[in-house]
């Protein structure tokens, strides 16, 4: 009951700031529309082994960037801001366990990711001819592990950042290099060979490339899935050890 009320409050606060919901909805949909229409991403492409760029790269990219943005930028900034303003300290002195607030925030962010992802897929399938993932079970597993790993990174940032501004700065410093090295700016196949291995173990790159594999039918590699699980355990463990309520 307490968790339900906290989640409802956090959802209202999330929706009260129009910039965050707009960005969450606009970025994945915008990526699909721009690349699907302007770049003619629905046609088979030699760069992706005869697969359309829309399903072989753009749609997995939209899903991954959505998760990374929520997990590494929005989520830790909110939690660190609550610490800075004393919200976590007041909760720690109340009968409500402070961990419920973290759970409520995670639920709100995951719900936002689900809504935005379904909307983007609907636009892609109905308006752009996007095909659905060929390995739906592997797709769900890859997205779930990717979300777990990325939100563990976000929790680590939230655990260490003393303020909302600091969390946002750390998140940006973490976010953009992971995009560059994870095969987001250019597909993994176009990176130097040694960076291709890096792309498969970083949280953003492992998520993107695992989702790409399940979408096109080749499947996610064991290395990518193990890297995501290891990241979740490592970052989650460090965050739990060093997280401060005050």
TrEMBL record:
Keywords attached to this Swiss-Prot or TrEMBL record, sorted alphabetically, are: Antibiotic resistance, Cell membrane, Membrane, Transmembrane, Transmembrane helix, Transport
Q: According to its record, how does it sit in the membrane?
A: Multi-pass membrane protein
Cellular location(s): Cell membrane; Membrane
Ranges of residues in domain ABC transmembrane type-2: 19-246
One Gene Ontology cellular component term attached to this UniProt record is: ATP-binding cassette (ABC) transporter complex
**GO molecular function terms noted in the UniProt entry:** ABC-type transporter activity
Q: What is the name attached to this protein's record?
A: Transport permease protein
Organism the protein comes from: Amycolatopsis sacchari
């Amino acid at each position: 009951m307490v968790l339900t009320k906290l989640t409802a409050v956090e959802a209202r606060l999330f929706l009260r700031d129009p910039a965050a919901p707009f960005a969450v909805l606009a970025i994945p949909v915008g990526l699909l529309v721009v690349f699907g229409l302007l770049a003619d991403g629905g046609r088979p492409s030699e760069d992706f082994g005869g697969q359309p760029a829309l399903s072989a790269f753009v749609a997995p990219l939209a899903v991954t960037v959505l998760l990374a943005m929520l997990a590494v930028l929005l989520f830790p900034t909110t939690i660190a801001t609550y610490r800075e303003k004393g919200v976590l300290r007041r909760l720690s002195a109340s009968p409500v366990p402070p961990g419920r607030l973290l759970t409520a925030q995670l639920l709100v962010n995951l719900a936002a990711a689900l809504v935005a992802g379904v909307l983007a897929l609907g636009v892609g399938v109905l308006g752009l001819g996007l095909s659905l993932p060929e390995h739906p079970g592997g797709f769900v597993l890859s997205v779930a592990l990717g979300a777990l790993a990325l939100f563990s990174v976000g929790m680590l940032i939230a655990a260490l950042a003393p303020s909302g501004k600091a969390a946002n700065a750390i998140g940006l410093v973490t976010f953009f290099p992971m995009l560059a090295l994870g095969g987001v700016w250019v597909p993994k196949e176009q990176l130097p060979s040694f960076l291709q291995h890096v792309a498969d173990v970083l949280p953003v790159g492992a998520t993107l490339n695992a989702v790409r594999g399940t979408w096109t039918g080749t499947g996610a590699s064991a290395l990518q899935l193990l890297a995501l699980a290891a990241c979740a355990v490592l970052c989650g463990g460090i965050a739990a050890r060093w997280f401060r309520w005050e």
